[in-house]
Amino acid sequence: MVLALALGAIVIAAGWLFWGRGSARHGSPVVDDSVATETPPAIASDTKRPAAPAPPAREHVADEAGGTPMPPELPHAHPITPQHQRIFAENRIAFALDDATDAKDVAMMKDLLAQYRRDFPDDQWQLQSGYAVIIECLEHPGPASRQAAERWLDQNNGSTVKRSVLRNCIDPPQP
Q: N or C: which end of the chain has fewer CB within 10 A?
């Protein structure tokens, strides 16, 4: 066991030395030769350094084919689309439902579940019925809600709410 760990550490260190240092040579920064470089004069320790000059404005650069110049401000490579905003909104509600479930705040869970049903009726992640089962278990603990939770688990094996259903409906409460 110790030999395997030592061998693993040696392989990692060798890989770092080989690939880590080799890539540093190839990725050296490009230096603009048009800007004169001077060694700054020595400054006494009791004086303040002047502020660094602002970087030069970016110039229009022709594209690789030598055609039209590219604009100085390119659009973001991954813009936030309405589809992204919808996903973010769905995630916010799902995370809030998780937090309310952890706090066992049934009233908040009911409000968030109603909002989730209203805003995301398709329920592609099978969240709505899972949280409804959890609410039932928290409001009315007992054999009936446990059996409903077991049926839901059998029918919704791929749901991300499965753990919460198990924790709140099936597993015995931890002291």
A: C
